[in-house]
Amino acid sequence: FPGSLRVRLPVLILVLEVLLLLLFSLFVTYDEHAHALAQTNATDHMKNEVYRVYPFFADVQVMIFIGFACLLAFMRLYGFGGVVFNFLTATFSVQWAIIIQGFCHFYHDGKIHIGVFNFINAEFACAVVLISFGAVLGKTSPVQLLIMALLEIPIFAVTDWLIVTYLKINDAGGSIVIHIFACYFGLGVTRMLYRPSLNDGHANLTTSYQSDILSVLGTLFLWVFWPSFNSALTLPGDDQHRAIIHTFIGLSSSTLTAFALSALLDKKGKLSMSDIQNVTLAGGVTVGATVDMMVTPACAFALGVVGCCACMLGYKYLTPFMATKLKIQDQCGIHNLHGLTGLISTLAAIIAILMANEDTYGLKLQSVFPDIQPGEGRSASQQAIYQVAALGLALATSVLGGLLTGAILKLPFLSQPTDDYCFDDRVYFEVPNDFDAASTPPGPPADNLQELP
Amino acid sequence: FPGSLRVRLPVLILVLEVLLLLLFSLFVTYDEHAHALAQTNATDHMKNEVYRVYPFFADVQVMIFIGFACLLAFMRLYGFGGVVFNFLTATFSVQWAIIIQGFCHFYHDGKIHIGVFNFINAEFACAVVLISFGAVLGKTSPVQLLIMALLEIPIFAVTDWLIVTYLKINDAGGSIVIHIFACYFGLGVTRMLYRPSLNDGHANLTTSYQSDILSVLGTLFLWVFWPSFNSALTLPGDDQHRAIIHTFIGLSSSTLTAFALSALLDKKGKLSMSDIQNVTLAGGVTVGATVDMMVTPACAFALGVVGCCACMLGYKYLTPFMATKLKIQDQCGIHNLHGLTGLISTLAAIIAILMANEDTYGLKLQSVFPDIQPGEGRSASQQAIYQVAALGLALATSVLGGLLTGAILKLPFLSQPTDDYCFDDRVYFEVPNDFDAASTPPGPPADNLQELP
Amino acid sequence: FPGSLRVRLPVLILVLEVLLLLLFSLFVTYDEHAHALAQTNATDHMKNEVYRVYPFFADVQVMIFIGFACLLAFMRLYGFGGVVFNFLTATFSVQWAIIIQGFCHFYHDGKIHIGVFNFINAEFACAVVLISFGAVLGKTSPVQLLIMALLEIPIFAVTDWLIVTYLKINDAGGSIVIHIFACYFGLGVTRMLYRPSLNDGHANLTTSYQSDILSVLGTLFLWVFWPSFNSALTLPGDDQHRAIIHTFIGLSSSTLTAFALSALLDKKGKLSMSDIQNVTLAGGVTVGATVDMMVTPACAFALGVVGCCACMLGYKYLTPFMATKLKIQDQCGIHNLHGLTGLISTLAAIIAILMANEDTYGLKLQSVFPDIQPGEGRSASQQAIYQVAALGLALATSVLGGLLTGAILKLPFLSQPTDDYCFDDRVYFEVPNDFDAASTPPGPPADNLQELP
């Protein structure tokens, strides 16, 4: 069977591990918070950066390895694939990002200096890959996913480095750098992997009672720890505090809105689990670019509502349109949850920057205009232009990078499943005996109530 | 179909969101830990309150949105309802509580000043609503649940404010303020929503193998983070330390006891999952009112055992009696897990207060007698009387509030399900094809062993 | 039915609880971080040890009560047993360890002084019991499991005390003290409980689609929080920081390796869920004994790869050999995941110690040679010998203790299930109606693809 991983996956992983081990051996050492020689008896060991960073790192870990895993396991016959390929892709992505980002940000004296702080940055790069993964879920082999990560991480890292180093924008939650980049990269990949037959639907594209519950639990893990995600890289103190407040409020308002729209847009007035699983999270992205600014809690609430509406309408109308007309088959609708919301967040940040002033920020104004210094400070309008430039750069590199990566993923021998075998765990996994039962659902849809006594 | 949410849920949520947005816009601003203007270059940003409060907030978040969700998903055909309606109710309750509690506790200079600290308080108010929710699980529509939260939060907040401001009692774990109030409010509501036919049982009132496992995982999430819940609002330092110690020990002893009683009270000598899911948690409530006092670890252990016994006997004998004789149908048995245990905890606190003295507490004695000050200090017996007064107040407002709320929930057009459609996800959700399989369990109970080889 | 718990479990638990309550009453008091009298107004309450220790304790709690629970629930008909017996055994083990370790380490002035720090130590003792539990999963009654914990905790505590007090070895992650001891103790027990018929397989020894997913989620919880486990008891500061770094890198490299080997060693080139569930974690143990040393990140990466290979080959070839030839039936393959990896880790630590010098560690060298002091300091080779001595001691006490415990568990009246009733929840639990469906899987293995269109 062409999809067999027997030779290809081990060979690819072996190559990647030798590469990683080589790079770790040659270039990676501890940073001053993790190196014994950097310590003196005078050190107050509890001042070590690890104590400030690790709690946020642990929360993001739960999001990446458990939240994403469960959320992606929503398909009736692709639960193993959702959880396990997320595990594989994430694990490689983080290690690879530690190296690549290391050369960009933490390289001096011929060494990459690492600590837990690097790990958080690497997990953000990993989140980028997993978001893009959502566009091709069930249509790609683990071999393809590893190659996608191999290519996406460097393209992302360089884009991120350019934005952080030269453009110095406000984007604490990563709405531009993470979500928009990840979304359009993923769309580029799935555009190249276009499968005409899937536009007629696919027998495996349904959920089960258990998979729907598992998936919404993934949503809840992401929901609960999203404030840690959006605040992990802000300035400590009130900035980080605001990031937590805004994320929580934005998520809450988008959740309420999602319930309302889900019932409203369903002809029977029933709630759809896929709306609950995805649209409720829109607010977390929408507040991202302004998450640490003085935008008021009410504004965070409003952003959650607006982002949720855009996301919901996207799922309803834009995703089908893109699949049929633009040949962009966005499996998990990442364009709705990460793209549209990211664009709204970018716009909100520009407005917030134009309105920022000393009366609101006092001495903290420089956190809005990072470059502000005697002589070379930026004006609000200048900063706004930098934000737009960052958006343009992210869009350009992600689309081009995605298309290029997609083209490479079409190479033969990457174990890509044929159309019939999409969204099917049997292709890549030994499955238990009851898989058949799962694969043959009993009869027609069950949600007609007259069946009841 | 009368249960349709198509118009009612969106309209209600729209109204609530407009209300929330209006109140946020007019009254909500940042507190000094989250406001940029309150910061100076001199500030040590790591001293920001957020670093003390956020870890406990995150733990409570997991309990509210994941622990409760899984625990409530124990029914075979109501897994979506358990997880998703918990999500909706909790999300609205927290936002609503931020406003209402804000006016009670954090309102000055014409503004409600918020930070993560407010969020913890709001999550406690949210826990109150979710506990009450347990009494009417599966018998109420999301419209009714939102209206219940809309009414319960203010009644709770005012009761809480009166107790904290004037009675100044010892109740760090909220056994009186949270658990007893939530329990009797919920019983009041379910009394008004009495459904005679349900006393003859209901076809949907069974569990499935998967729903039992999911539910016990919810128990474990609550169990693991309960120490954070009971210690989140204590004084920092040794008080908080004791709260963690006592909660962990109390939960452990009640868990061991629950296993013993579950096997003992079953005629076949088998363990019942519903006992493991609920009764094991009794200790967390029972230690609540004395959780930060110098009651000795042995006392926490004993409280866990006593609370567990009361809880177990309540499930076995009191719940059926209340359903048939008092017309109080307590779906999840909240009276056993939160009511009886809360009363025991209240009594324990009174005894602990009467025994408190300088020899045990030293300078910390004032944490037991909050009002202690030159001239107007309280004696132990006075403090004990205040505890009783708080109990009486909580009982009165919760029962009356619950009955009133229940009466309002009986209004037409709130999409309340008819008896036949109780505990059935099909009423409010698009369900997957395999729901039928779930809804028609194969044959008779399976736990007779002669069926085995 | 002989397996009935009706009398035996309640009686045993009653005895254990009376014992615990007695010991708590007579000997347990608060340590200086939890005792009110130890506080003065001058105290900075945030300096209380609880704030340094509790976050790590909470993470380990999730591993013990949720991670282990899910991982052990991989069997189709033993999901209740996996989750619930883990809950019971863990709860008793922690309480029992608080007492026993208390007498070993925290006993002075006639009292055991406890705080959250004791709880972390107790959870490690608990992890030891749960690892041993893996060897006899599904073949032992809860009565037997409690007696196993009752005996294993003291034997472990004394071994641990001897090693910590006199041998003073480097083993921050507990590869020797925890994993090797737990593994060989468990093998000793299962050797005594040898069941010849099980070597011909057992009808219940299969997984289901849901149980495989649940189990891998347990793996992910363990994976995510393992860095907290390995770093919880290191020196604060850079040592703890390195422990986190090494654990994360070691887990990542072993995860990648596990995917490669799983596909390579399967004749169809498919991934096996049991490999993903178990072998991915090998790196966490393998880095354990050197986890806080200056071994370089590359070394942690290499250790993860080596440990994973040993673990995978162990599952493939050693476990069957031990079951048939040595009459050691290792149900969960703990010898692969904890034994082989622990031995590799021990060897790595010896090499790392022999290579340790001032140029690498500077003033921190004493953390490698704990006893280093004017006059009586140890040399590297001396320290290496102590490591070997600790390994020998752990092996001796665990094997002997395990065999002794196993012999005692064979006593009658401990509700041990007969061969037919192994791995079957019906023996000890009231099961829901759909259990039959679960217990009769539809037809033959389903992973042949020609069945698809």
Counted beta strands of chain A: 3
Strand content of chain A: under 5%
Strand order of the largest sheet of chain A: 1-3-2
* Percent helix of chain A: 55-70%
Quaternary assembly: homotrimer
Query: Helical element count of chain A?
Result: 15
Largest interface summary: A-B, 76 and 78 residues
**Helix-strand category of chain A:** mainly alpha
Query: What is the rounded distance between the termini of chain A?
Result: 49 Å
Low-confidence stretches of chain A: 443-453
Average pLDDT of chain A works out at 92
**From the alpha-carbon coordinates, what is the Rg of chain A to the nearest angstrom?**
22 Å
Write the element-wise H/E pattern of chain A from the N-terminal end onward.
HEHHEEHHHHHHHHHHHH
Major sheet attributes of chain A: 3 strands, mixed
